Amino acid sequence: MTVYFIGAGPGAADLITVRGARILAASPVCLYAGSLVPVQLLAECPEGARLIDTANLDIDRITAELVRAHTDGDDVARLHSGDPSVFSAVNEQMKRLDEAGVPYEVVPGVPAFAAAAAALKRELTVPTVGQTVILTRIAQRATAMPEGEDLATLGRSGALIVLHLAARYVDRVVDELLPHYGADCPTAVVAMASRPDEIILRGTLDSIAGQVKAAGVIRTAVIMVGRTLGAEQFRDSHLYSPERDRHVC
Predict the structure, then answer these.
(1) What is the CB neighbour count within 10 angstroms for residue 64?
(2) Structural domain for 198, as ranges
(3) Nearest Cα to 115, choosing from 67, 162, 62, 169?
(4) Same domain, yes or no, for 13 and 39?
(5) 15 and 84 co-located in one domain
(6) What pTM was estimated for this model as a whole?
(7) Domain count within the chain
(8) pLDDT tens over the chain, length 249 residues
(9) Residue 245, domain member (yes or no)
(10) Residue 138: inside a domain
């Protein structure tokens, strides 16, 4: 009897991993966030499975459902959008399961930033242009950012920044990054990545806010800011270089 925290992917039902789909198809109980997980995935659940939408449940009620399933002897598929390793609120669930003595495993999924990069047809790390990607968010009323992780501080690195949960605050993003990246820095926003209603916006740091507002994008989006998004002149990777000695381990 195990709880499986499964990354359901960024939106498209067929972007769940083979392992995740296999576990989902064998679990008699499935908890999912109805506002984020594609409903098509629920068709993979076994016939008669107990399906629980967690969109309006607090952490105590979610934990109670997980513990109940374990007590009943049932495996549980706990579907999370994207990948559980970032911005998934999975830590507090695992902590409570540890306290309750309930075993669990984590099955990774395709994260939203990877789906966004695929939609843009961009590699986020480019030789001699940028080799660092920062995944972050901005402070909101609900959750403050730790000291030293504000955009003004992170922006000093000049690395590609990927912002989750920030489309509603795009003006703040622009204001805090402009001094470090410049008005002409390539910027993109991808909303509902991999879904049929996917929205892709490309521009610069000084033009993206207007595009976001015009498109009505306020959630389920990632903002990307960095020079690698527009890199055209760069050195080829050493990995496939004809000059590389392939006899050296």
Answers:
(1) 14
(2) 112-230
(3) 162
(4) yes
(5) yes
(6) 0.90
(7) 2
(8) 799 999 999 999 999 999 999 999 999 999 999 888 888 999 999 999 999 999 999 999 999 999 999 999 999 999 999 999 999 999 999 999 999 999 999 999 999 999 999 999 999 999 889 999 999 999 876 678 888 999 999 999 999 999 999 999 999 999 999 999 999 999 999 999 999 999 999 999 999 999 999 999 998 999 999 999 998 876 666 666 666 666 665
(9) no
(10) yes
